[in-house]
Write a structure and sequence with these properties.
The chain has 5 helices and 21 strands. With about 400 residues, it is α+β, with helices and mostly antiparallel strands.
Length: about 400
């Protein structure tokens, strides 16, 4: 970016848009001045650099708040309920067993309604991405709601569809601005039971995403000839664009039972493709930029296990559950995003570097579910991302379900 800025100011100064020419001349001139404060110059370049743009790819592939992770958690959780044979009550994805037999009756919830099931759930995520040399860190919050319906075509085959709405708020560190995203995702899914206790799940998704981003640019540069003369910039460059997401998930697992204990080893394959349109910023006091389109891909394998134990009480059943899974990333390589200054009519481009992700990391979590009479259940859950360098991500789930 600094090289493009220098060439624009020195080689085609008169062709530049006025505000960009003024800012560029001052910053480049100060950088070339041997008496200038290098810390001020470095801070100005840091503030102008658009590393905020990396939030889209980082959140899409490297946190538990990614759209595909949210959809997978919601729908695969629903399928886990169906695997357990509880179509009408969500027991955090497990069946209730006592002395080797499924718990039934008022204390364990009601029998399934039949072939058709309708469901609704929500989730909340939060986390943080640390700042590095190449990335402006940010904190994020994410809310989602998913509604779906499925139908049992055969005893061994279930198909369904769902719709997910996700809203994300991202706040950049160092007062770097904020980004808001709204996602609308449709899904089709199915579950097949080749033999008893063995399941194979398929989930396909397509969604549209609206991105809004405000880059906060704030710095001041002292004049080398007049110490009391400062070039003060305090502005926001605003941009918005759209994106499209495709996803495919394949999952298989086997349920093992021993008295009140259930253990399910499972494996999963997940593929994501995200396309983001090019866009042009507004405002920015001369520092507005144009950004080329982005193509982001992720392909992961997941291997894990769930362990649950059913405790029967006079008023119902309590089921604690623990789970852990290892993720391996095959794609999502390091890449570059092309950008240029709006105020440069030549549109000379520079590259924004996206660092390579961690290939291996883990997710651990647990749930506590209470099931009462008349098919009423309540649950609380927590998951955490473990072993990913400079990224923390957490999911908290609180919910209840009532049989109608």
């Amino acid at each position: 970016m600094a090289v493009v800025m220098f060439e624009a100011c020195s080689e085609r100064n008169e062709q530049l848009e006025e505000q960009f020419r003024t800012r560029c001349n001052r910053l480049v001139g100060t950088a070339l001045d041997e008496t200038a404060n290098p810390a001020e110059v470095g801070n100005a370049l840091f503030r102008v650099a658009p590393e905020q743009l990396l939030v889209y790819g980082l959140q899409a592939t490297r946190t538990m708040a990614s759209n595909i992770n949210v959809v997978n958690t919601s729908i695969l959780g629903r399928l886990q309920t169906l695997h357990a044979g509880l179509d009408s009550v969500r027991f955090a994805g497990i069946q209730l067993y006592k002395d080797g037999q499924p718990l039934r009756g008022g204390n364990a919830g009601s029998e399934a309604f039949g072939k058709l099931g309708v469901w609704l759930n929500g989730s909340y995520h939060l986390g943080e991405v640390d700042s590095t040399r190449d990335v402006k860190g940010f904190t994020f919050k994410n809310w989602s709601v998913t509604a779906g319906a499925d139908y049992k075509i055969l005893e061994s085959l279930i198909v369904g569809g769902a719709f997910t709405y996700i809203t994300s708020d991202n706040d950049f560190k160092h007062k770097g601005g904020e980004s808001d995203n709204d996602s609308y995702i449709g899904s089709l899914y199915g579950s097949f039971y080749p033999i008893e206790n063995l399941y194979v799940d398929v989930l396909g998704t397509y969604g549209h995403i609206n991105f809004d981003i405000d880059r906060k640019i704030s710095y001041r540069l002292a004049s080398s000839t007049d110490p009391d003369n400062f070039d003060v910039v305090d502005t926001k460059a605003k941009g918005d664009t759209d994106g499209r997401q495709w996803g495919l998930t394949l999952s298989t697992g086997y349920n093992l039972h021993w008295q009140s204990v259930k253990f399910t080893p499972y494996a999963r394959f997940s593929y994501l493709k995200l396309d983001i349109d090019n866009y042009r910023e507004r405002g920015g006091q001369g520092w507005a930029m144009r950004f080329d389109s982005q193509d982001i891909e992720s392909m992961k394998s997941i291997v894990g296990g769930r362990l649950a134990y059913a405790i029967s009480l006079p008023w119902g059943v309590v089921v604690p559950q623990a789970r852990g899974e290892w993720h391996h990333e095959f794609r999502d390589p390091s890449r570059t995003i092309k950008a240029s200054f709006v105020g440069d009519p030549l549109g000379q481009k520079f590259s924004i570097f996206v660092p390579h992700p961690d290939e291996d990391y883990a997710i651990f979590g647990g749930d506590l579910t209470a099931t009462f009479a008349q098919g009423i259940s309540a649950f609380v859950g927590y998951e955490a991302l473990v072993g990913y360098d400079r990224i923390s991500s957490h999911r908290i789930t609180l919910g209840a379900r009532v049989q109608f």
